[in-house]
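Weekly puzzle thread! Below is a chain. First person to post its structure in token form gets bragging rights.
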Amino acid sequence: MANVKKPHRRASKISSKHQITIPVEALRNAGLEAGDRVVAHAAGAGRVILDREHDVINELSGTLTGVYERNELDDLRSEWR
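Winning reply:
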């Protein structure tokens, strides 16, 4: 009987490494999944807000299509050598 898990509660405990487990239901409701990167912001005493990290690289990738001609960047890079 020593291996019986405690019933699930909505509260989480902060570990000595300042880590916390967020209930799956809260993550799902926030649209967050395992592997997502988040930024923590203090919002007053006892309140922390997690926001999904803004990925600038992903947002801007592909936006300069057509700006350079084919192999133009390779030619410029070869000048550096």
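Puzzle host: Confirmed. Bonus trivia for everyone else. Residues 72-79 form the longest helix (8 residues).
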